[in-house]
């Protein structure tokens, strides 16, 4: 149960600020270029994480203590970001937070796997993260108003900071997970061998498609909250709850993923997942006047995440040599959390600014055709070029 709550708090930190980060930066008057720089912080942290958390922290720090110190520093940085109203101080606080938070995503997984009797139980633990993300949205019904300004919206960082400090304390109660000795058989340069896997056509194709879908996926978080509040007309204190419906659907979809993979196989499952993005953005583009349709289409998030990203993680774990699996997962995580985040943070604020009229109205129909088209391109590449040697997992994975 402690591992479940560790994951819940871990993802609640992220879920508290992520939906409203870009609208908040707009309220502070940050330019699209400045917003892109903030968005690049996770890319920087992801690269640093490959070499620090995987190659240094694992060797020298007990994982639960690393988690405690990281979340203590991260919580203070988030509180600092809440009170930073100019770009320089805000960027410094957010970058420092990113550098200490992103590595904890893999470290928390390390703790979970180290203390589970059966790796198949990880899905049940990881479900705590989804629950935490959903629960993090609910306080803002009361903390924000329908038309909140930056003085109110900065609460996203105060809430996230408070959760981070709580997790710092809670981490010290987690089971002891000692550092792994350098002689444990893990290649210190396994990340270099993981890059070598890209010479295999099937891995290279999946890498390209994951890059495309990571841009689309991160673009959703860049644009969705502002779209719901400014175009659809959903109150600012309810938009995060509406977005959290996608995480609720994610829990249900993850429960079905093992059976879906066994029935449809790698390629079709991934195609369905990436087309979920296309369908969602097309609904945003053409059904913005229908509040029920826009709320309902949030449920596609479960398909988008489980059928593509979770399937990618399972595929990599199955096809990669055992001694480079962790680094290979980190390589794909670099796309999902890092590179895709950087590109989306630069591309979509720039397009939003370019397609905003003199009256301040954004041409969302035109804007959302871009990620819909990218997702469709990814699905076409999968259909034509992705040829795995196995059609499905050797044994249907128990995700939850």
TrEMBL record:
Predominant subcellular localization, coarse grouping: membrane
Membrane-crossing residue ranges in chain numbering: 33-54, 66-88, 94-117, 129-149, 155-174, 202-222, 234-257, 264-287, 293-316, 328-355, 367-386
Domain of life: Bacteria
SUPFAM superfamilies reported in the protein's UniProt record: MFS general substrate transporter
Gene3D superfamilies reported for this sequence: MFS general substrate transporter like domains (1.20.1250.20)
PANTHER family noted in UniProt: BLL5896 PROTEIN, NUCLEOSIDE PERMEASE NUPG-RELATED
Protein name per Swiss-Prot or TrEMBL: MFS transporter
């Amino acid at each position: 149960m402690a591992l479940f709550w560790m994951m819940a708090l871990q993802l609640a930190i992220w879920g508290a600020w992520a939906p409203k980060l870009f609208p908040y930066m707009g309220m502070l008057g940050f330019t699209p270029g400045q917003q892109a720089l903030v968005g690049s912080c996770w890319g920087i942290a992801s690269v640093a994480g490959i070499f620090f958390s995987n190659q240094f922290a694992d060797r020298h720090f007990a994982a639960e203590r690393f988690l405690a110190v990281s979340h203590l520093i991260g919580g203070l940085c988030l509180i600092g970001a809440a009170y930073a109203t100019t770009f320089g101080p805000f960027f410094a606080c957010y970058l420092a937070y990113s550098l200490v938070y992103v590595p904890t995503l893999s470290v928390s997984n390390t703790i979970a796997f180290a203390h589970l009797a059966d790796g198949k139980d990880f899905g049940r633990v990881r479900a705590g993260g989804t629950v935490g993300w959903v629960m993090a949205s609910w306080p803002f019904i009361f903390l924000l108003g329908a038309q909140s300004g930056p003085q109110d919206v900065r609460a996203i960082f105060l809430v996230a900071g408070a959760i981070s400090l709580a997790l710092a304390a809670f981490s010290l109660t987690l089971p002891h997970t000692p550092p792994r000795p350098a002689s444990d058989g893990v290649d210190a340069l396994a990340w270099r061998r993981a890059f070598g896997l890209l010479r295999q056509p099937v891995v290279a194709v999946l890498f390209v498609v994951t890059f495309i879908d990571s841009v689309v996926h991160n673009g959703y978080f860049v644009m969705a909250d502002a779209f719901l509040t400014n175009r659809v007309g959903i109150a600012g204190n309810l938009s995060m709850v509406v977005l959290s419906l996608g995480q609720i659907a994610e829990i249900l979809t993850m429960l079905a993923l093992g059976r879906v993979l066994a029935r449809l196989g790698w390629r079709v499952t991934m195609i369905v997942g990436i087309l979920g993005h296309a369908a969602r953005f097309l609904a945003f583009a053409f059904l913005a006047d229908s509040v029920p349709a826009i709320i309902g289409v949030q449920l596609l998030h479960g398909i988008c995440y489980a059928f593509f990203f979770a399937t990618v993680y399972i595929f990599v774990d199955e096809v990669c040599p055992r001694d480079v699996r962790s680094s290979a997962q980190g390589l794909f995580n670099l796309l999902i959390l890092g590179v895709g985040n950087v590109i989306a943070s630069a591309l979509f604020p720039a397009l939003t600014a370019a397609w905003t009229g003199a009256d301040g109205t954004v041409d969302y129909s035109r804007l959302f055709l871009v990620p819909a088209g990218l997702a469709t391109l990814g699905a076409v590449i999968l259909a034509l070029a992705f040829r795995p040697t196995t059609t499905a997992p050797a044994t249907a994975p128990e995700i939850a």
